[in-house]
Amino acid sequence: MTSLNRPRPKPGVLDIAAYVPGKGSAPGVAKVYKLSANESPLGASPHAIEAYRAVEPQLTLYPDGQAKALREAIAETQGLNPANILCGNGSGELLSYLTQAYLAPGDEAIITEHGFLLYKVQTLAAGATPVTVRETNERVDVDAILEAVTSRTKAVFIANPNNPTGTYLPFEEVRRLHAGLPKTVLLVLDAAYSEYVRRNDYEAGVELVSANENVVMTRTFSKVHGLPGLRIGWMYAPVHVIDAVERLRGPFNLNSAAIEAGAAAIRDRAHVEKSVAYNAQWLGWLEAELTALGLRVTPSVANFLLVHFDQNDPEKSAEKADAYLTAQGYVLRRVTAYGFPNALRLTVGPEEANRGVIAALTEFLK
Ligand SMILES: *Cc1c(COP(=O)(O)O)cnc(C)c1O
């Protein structure tokens, strides 16, 4: 049988290495701590869960195709105009719409060495060419991006803070990046972890979007809001970008439960604050403990840590550590596909898991 005699995907599709989510189980282990997907150990706001339950009578009707209740809750709590907000089935869906709307075969999208892999997948899915540029000290390098811009460049994708490094670009650097880009290049700022950042020199990107025609900020309910299962993301963008994406968008891309629970979640500021404070405490604790064990940790402002293992000791590699930890129920994320074959990404978890993973690593390194 030859592949000429059957349908073939368009160019680019078969170049895609499918996105592989963090594993969630450890075969044969009674108690499993999933520390591989940056989910919130505090879960969702009780108000969000209540709103989710209250949706049941609406399940026989189509949802509101404009997701008005959610867009208004976002607009009110963030001080934004709802006309500049569009919601997605996770922010991943919005990234896919942006690539479909702005990238064609022959176009280039710039992504970074250790950047979130979805950007590459979706650029290829649009038939365009991902151009990967180096990072410096595991952080996005603005000069490297600007040097890679060509007349074919149509978009630049950065996650700020980035996953899986946890590092961030100070806002002045983001501003410098924007200032160096042609006005026709779309700068996509993926701020999935922005709520966790407690740094004076950080901004998610609202100002830059408001003041320009070529910047988009994406956000998610999957991290600090603790609702990854409902698939809710949003973007803040100029009206002409919203208009373009509206033409591609599935008319009912958010379901009724996502709309109602999302609105309740973002209005519960106390829950967000509690989750952020919890994260700050345990992120610091984990970083100190890991460092004390002699492991290098990339400085993170998000809800996870990139932990590096000994290059020179094959018995103490990330692969061996992963197997050891998994056997004890601590499931971390391997990050080989992100250019870190000898590191693991650890999500800040419940207290018991944080203490347990450090105890297990202490044993492993003996
Ligand atoms: C988790 C994550 C997201 C969120 O994706 P959703 O589709 O909203 O669940 C987006 N960007 C990055 C970098 C992430 O790590």
UniProtKB/TrEMBL annotation:
UniProt KW keywords: Amino-acid biosynthesis, Aminotransferase, Histidine biosynthesis, Pyridoxal phosphate, Transferase
Protein name as annotated: Histidinol-phosphate aminotransferase
Transmembrane segments: none
Enzyme class: transferase
EC number: 2.6.1.9
Record-annotated Aminotransferase class I/classII large domain positions: 31-360
Stored SUPFAM superfamilies: PLP-dependent transferases (SSF53383)
One GO term (biological process): L-histidine biosynthetic process
Reactions catalysed: L-histidinol phosphate + 2-oxoglutarate = 3-(imidazol-4-yl)-2-oxopropyl phosphate + L-glutamate
Biological pathway: Amino-acid biosynthesis; L-histidine biosynthesis; L-histidine from 5-phospho-alpha-D-ribose 1-diphosphate: step 7/9
Family to which the UniProt record says this protein belongs: Belongs to the class-II pyridoxal-phosphate-dependent aminotransferase family. Histidinol-phosphate aminotransferase subfamily.
Co-factor requirement: pyridoxal 5'-phosphate
Complexes and interactors: Homodimer.
